[in-house]
Specification:
Blueprint: E1 7-9, H1 23-33, E2 38-41, H2 47-62, E3 67-76, H3 87-93, E4 99-106, H4 117-134, E5 137-141, H5 151-161, E6 166-171, H6 172-178, H7 183-190, E7 194-199, H8 229-238, E8 245-247, H9 256-270
Parallel strand pairs: 1-8, 2-3, 3-4, 4-5, 5-6, 6-7, 7-8
Helix pairs in contact: 1-2, 3-4, 7-8
């Protein structure tokens, strides 16, 4: 089986390290380990976070790698964040060819509530139009407990808007954390719309505990736990997906060089 073309690591791998917020150092390390891109989880609520976003692309390239995607949460009912910057501003500053991953929450809405689609689409359409004009792609990111909690939610909204500037990300961790079922079918559902995919190692959190204080499943280096890595790899191959694949690293213990090396080695063996 042919390995996929671009492997990137979430910047949350570096959250508790001296490389946190330093895209040059992150890119330099990632490139040395065989990764092909960086990834930035932006903070639009502070000027410090905004400056990191503005500097990220150039700094990453100084370290030798492009940026696979930037990520932010669109909080409908709390936008723009007080004292912060809007998603419109993010899109306006992204260079052509960029991908903006949007996880979406909505004040007062339940997870996977399709009855709120019309409200959501009213918010998304202008952003999609702006993205198309800028040469940017929005990729909807499903996330446990959010309005778009399941890949089915992202695909449903993408189908309704039906615009080439709007795609979806298949999030291996959030699929696994929400239900972990019917992986081949869900990958096939997402296939026409997929722009990115990501995964990690994972297993149910120890009985009576939650991972990182709240999550039902752990986040671990790729290949660890009982996340179905082989099935995930085969499922991507079966739908002909050859796009970028990212490794989720939220609250992973250990030093980045060690955990990142373990993850990419496990991925290579699985391919």
């Amino acid at each position: 089986m042919k390995a996929l073309s671009t492997i990137y690591a979430f910047d949350n791998y570096f959250a508790d390290s001296p490389m946190a917020g330093d895209p040059v150092a992150q890119a330099t390390l990632l490139k040395s380990l065989g990764y092909g891109a960086t990834y930035h989880s932006m903070n639009r609520k502070t000027e410090e976070g905004w400056k990191k976003f503005l500097d990220w692309e150039e700094a990453s390239r100084r370290g030798g790698l492009p940026v696979a995607a930037c990520y932010t949460v669109l909080e409908i009912g709390k936008e723009p964040p007080e004292g912060g910057h809007s998603v419109d501003e993010v899109i306006a500053h992204l260079p052509s060819g960029s991908v903006l991953e949007l996880a979406i929450s909505m004040v007062g809405a339940q997870a996977s509530d399709a009855s709120r689609d019309a409200e959501l689409i009213d918010v998304l359409r202008p952003l999609v139009d702006l993205s198309r004009s800028r040469g940017v792609t929005i990729s909807l990111y499903h996330h446990i407990w959010f309005l778009l909690e399941r890949i089915e939610d992202c695909v449903r909204v993408a189908e309704k808007i039906n615009d080439p500037a709007l795609r979806v990300t298949f999030c291996g961790y959030h699929w696994y954390a929400v239900d972990g079922g019917e992986l081949p079918a869900k990958l096939r559902l997402a296939a026409p719309w997929m722009r990115l995919a990501n995964l990690c190692g994972s297993r149910p959190a120890p009985e009576g505990m939650k991972f990182a204080g709240c999550l039902p499943k752990t986040i671990e280096p790729v290949g660890e736990g009982d996340f179905p890595l082989a099935e995930f790899v085969q499922g991507l191959a079966d739908i002909g997906y050859s796009g970028p694949v990212g490794f989720q690293g939220y609250k992973i213990d250990g030093k980045p060089p060690e955990t990142l090396a373990r993850s990419i080695e496990a991925w290579r063996k699985a391919n």
